[in-house]
Amino acid sequence: MMKVCLTPSFFNHSLTAFILFITFIFFPTSSSEIYSQERFKIVIDAGHGGKDPGRPNKSGIKEKDIVLKIALDLGKKLENSGNEVIYTRDKDIFLTLRQRAKIANDVDADLFISIHCNAFHDSSVHGSETFVYGLHVSDANFNVAKKENEIIFLDDHYLDDQETYSPTSTESLIGTTLMQEEYLDQSILLASFVQNNFTKNLKIRNRGVKQSGFWVLHNTYMPSILIEAGFMTNPKEGTYLNSKKGQVGISNSIYDAIEKYKKAINYSENPLTKSNTNDIVNYKVQIAAGKRRLELKSYNFKGLKSLSRVKDGSFYKYFYSNSTSLIEIRKKKKYARLNGYPNAYIVGFKNGKLFDVD
């Protein structure tokens, strides 16, 4: 099967990048200058908005309003616990699916969470389901994805991209990004936490974790999930979704799932500041070294973000990403190699000392 890789490509072979590449070396460090990663970044995507109201409801309830309230409440909780939150929208505006994915990719988010409500012609249907992007697309999941993907037709520039993606094409839905394949297990893990919390805490019927071809998941290159919190067309569930109690309960359950996820992948906030403990190792991907001090801007490093550097004597060492999880950082190394740094390798920081990992 042909694999379509939609991971952003930033092969800008400038003289600066070339010099950095050929001077790519490793030196033992007694660093006096360390710049570390940002906080854990979460992009919260309130579905629909503006001229796109979302799923229908006979009582006049609009999906776009419900999911925005859930997103804003969730964001406050995450910010209060030290996370960095980026909203695709924090008010009633229209965004294309392309814009939503770009926001997450541009900030190099650690997670992308899209929040929606469901609808069905049979009002007795109820329950929540959370989607990840994947190849196992049943007819039912395909139909759900088609409904959410129809926002593309509201995009004034849809025809510009018609050759690269059709929201109702089975072939387009099967084409998956390399990074989404890499992050599938993590996406499923987070989705499972969300679904379990909905069932345990809110007594919402668990319709499961499913794979389908949502465009917005297809085009983000980090662990990503799309939550269908419940059916607006079910009288009882629709009333609950439209209530303050329901919206807060849903945001609480998603928040708790994210915190469980962070613990499961062994994420530690600001790990370098805790490096005086004996058991914490902070991993980075070393991409280059040289005598020239470069600003940590993506255009200096072939589009990579989450950059840091260490000064060792007259040399600067440059790093991409930052994690206490070796599994996570190995995926970042693979991504760096795909984007212009074929000799990138992993280093670790422990008690202020830098050492080679692999």
Helix/strand/pairing class, anyone?
alpha/beta
Specify the CATH architecture of the largest domain: 3-Layer(aba) Sandwich
Radius of gyration: 22 Å
- Strand tally: 12
Q: What profile does the largest beta sheet have? A: 6 strands, antiparallel
What is the strand content?
Answer: 15-25%
| Overall pLDDT metric | 77
Count of helical regions: 11
**Poorly predicted parts:** 1-37, 137-179, 269-277
Structural domain count: 2
The CATH class name of the largest domain reads Alpha Beta
Distance between the termini: 31 Å
- Tell me the CATH topology of the largest domain: Aminopeptidase
The helix content is 25-40%
Annotated CATH homologous superfamily of the largest domain: Zn-dependent exopeptidases
Q: Order of SSEs, N→C?
A: HEEHEHEEHHHHEHEHHEEEHEE
Question: Describe it for me?
Answer:
The chain is an alpha/beta fold and 358 residues long. The protein has two domains: 15-38 and 268-356, no CATH class; 41-264, 3-Layer(aba) Sandwich (Aminopeptidase). Helices cover 34% and strands 21% of the residues. It is built from eleven helices and twelve strands. The chain has helices spanning 15-22, 63-80, 97-106, 139-149, 170-174, 178-182, 184-202, 215-218, 235-241, 244-264, 326-338; strands at 33-34, 41-46, 84-87, 111-118, 128-133, 206-212, 224-231, 282-290, 307-312, 315-323, 345-350, 353-356. Strands 1-9-10-8-11-12 form a six-stranded antiparallel β-sheet. Strands 3-2-4-7-5-6 form a six-stranded mixed β-sheet, with helices on both faces. The longest helix is centred in the C-terminal third of the chain and has 21 residues, at 244-264. The protein starts with 14 loop residues before the first helix and ends with a strand. Residues 1-37, 137-179 and 269-277 have low confidence and may be disordered.
